[in-house]
């Protein structure tokens, strides 16, 4: 009996990458990033280890791709919430919505729980993509330093949360939003 091609239809590369990233995301959400290896991912999506390496790369590249995928989902969700807003209100909503979205995302939340300080620096703080997303979501396209600061504040709440969401919001309103208020 002939084995059915696991990538029937459409663009093979795109389908392979999508299937591998989705499979890795499922495993990361279930077991955490440290418990997942290339063999487990290949087995879960029905391909060979070589196919995972060919289309996505090793474990580090795969983790980056899964995190980027989760980040894109989160950014889309937050962008919808901040679209009608501007100024300090947009900054507050962008930050609080980002915190809620990361914490509730099955992959991002799992990765944040297990991430090391070295990885935070490499993948998050040093990420031009994350700074770009922060500039767009907060409406600070002309101030990349402010966007980097926002990224650092959001990350601090992710790693060292306040006792509840309302306190985080009050801290953001009192200390962060004040920096973006304009005199009427």
From TrEMBL:
DNA-binding positions: 37-56
Signal peptide, first to last residue: none
Domain HTH tetR-type: 14-74
Cited InterPro entries: Homeodomain-like_sf, HTH-type_TetR-like_transc_reg, HTH_TetR
Record-linked Pfam families: TetR_N
Domain of life: Bacteria
Keyword list, A-Z: DNA-binding, Transcription, Transcription regulation
Protein's name according to its UniProt entry: TetR/AcrR family transcriptional regulator
Organism the protein comes from: Antrihabitans spumae
Source species taxonomy: Bacteria, Bacillati, Actinomycetota, Actinomycetes, Mycobacteriales
């Amino acid at each position: 009996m002939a084995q059915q091609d696991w990538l029937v239809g459409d663009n093979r590369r795109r389908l392979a990458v999508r299937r591998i990233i989705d499979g890795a995301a499922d495993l990361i959400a279930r077991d955490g990033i440290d418990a997942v290896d290339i063999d487990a991912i290949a087995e879960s999506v029905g391909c060979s280890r070589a196919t995972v390496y060919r289309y996505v790369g090793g474990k580090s590249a795969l983790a980056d791709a899964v995190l980027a995928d989760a980040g894109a989902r989160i950014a889309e969700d937050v962008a919808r919430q901040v679209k009608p807003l501007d100024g300090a209100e947009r900054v507050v909503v962008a930050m609080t919505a980002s915190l809620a979205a990361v914490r509730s995302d099955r992959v991002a939340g799992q990765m944040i729980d297990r991430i090391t300080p070295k990885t935070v620096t490499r993948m998050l703080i040093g990420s031009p993509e994350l700074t770009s997303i922060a500039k767009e979501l907060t409406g600070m396209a002309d101030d990349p330093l402010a966007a980097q600061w926002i990224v650092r504040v959001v990350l601090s709440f992710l790693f060292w949360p306040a006792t509840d969401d309302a306190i985080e919001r009050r801290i953001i309103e009192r200390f962060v939003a004040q920096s973006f208020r304009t005199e009427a």
